[in-house]
User: Fold these one by one.
Assistant:
Number 1:
Amino acid sequence: MRVAVISDIHANLEALKQVLFDIGRSNVDSVICLGDTIGYGPDPDPVVTMIKDLEIPCVMGNHEQAVTDQNYLQWFNPLARKSLLRTIELLSGNVINFISELKPFLIHHDCRFVHGFPPDSATTYLFQVSEDQMQDAFKQLKERICFIGHTHLLQIIDFNGTGIARTPLTQSVVNLNRKNQYIINIGSVGQPRDGNNHAKYVIWDTSEDTLQVKFIPYDMVSVFNKMIAAGLPLSHAFSLL
């Protein structure tokens, strides 16, 4: 089975459309989303509606948490908070109801899917986790593989039972070791922060036990202009270019 995993779309409809187009021609059996469908970008309602209508399973991200419980707004820096307040204005009642029903994690194909860090955190960043905490997380993890997002950076964490290796992911195919456990950060569809502004997602082949990292171009200038027109923070718009 081939499973496409997407994350951190951040209301970037153009990027999502191009990623879904690529998924459609890549012989994929299912798609799973790791949250943060909203925030930063200009099209939160159409993005979530597309995820909903396509029946793509999705977990709760920290930006969704801020919509369902506005106490979480204080967790964000001032510009991200401003963006989220504008995002809330752009969301329909149906989409807010859909977001409020998202779960903190999903289990599919004997694999865990969570936004931030296992077992169920939407707010913990991978770079905040010490080596000891990482080993404890792996030992408590019932699944062999856990996919995460949140940092917008592609990275694979490999645990062989005694030691941990952290390796950046690039546009390539990675062979996994069936004896090892993995936490895999799949980057961002809508707002990458790795120096390459293409949309990112991965395809996990469960039979071959491979991970294919995809870099997808899209019309960034169009999204930039829409963000400016929507009154979203300039710094978030310029980060796309």
Number 2:
Amino acid sequence: MPKTQVVGVGEFAVSNDPDTVIKTFALGSCVAVIFLHKPTRTVGLIHVALPDSSINPDIVKDRPGYFADTGIPVILKKMALCTMPGKSLSQGMVVKIAGGANVLDTNNTFNVGKRNVLSLKKILWSLGMGPVAEDVGGSFSRTVTVPVGTGKIVLSSPTKGEWEL
């Protein structure tokens, strides 16, 4: 029976247990970044809410994953501990992103989803880990499910059904 690790807003999970499923629900403007380290079959998933921690640094203490600029370094550090301590993660790492929709801001006043996606891509590219696949934007929320044993990323939405990323 698979164990499910639910990742809330601003949280992250890392596992190399093939019997674990990592899941995050209802990504609207938030973005899930999924890291698949193929050589060690390790999966990491972070649920990012906002692009830049400078707007509220107090949140970082409890939930560093809430922001793109603080969350990516934290999850990569955790993944390094699970995979190959002291070695580079870039060899064999696959990165995919999902979310960044515009579900509440119908006038595009804040563009939080788009800003999240751009911020995350900028950070990932600076680390040499640009996403190889993405399902972002639109006006619908997404749920992301990743069984660690297969590394298959399944997206779902009440209005769109289920599909693979």
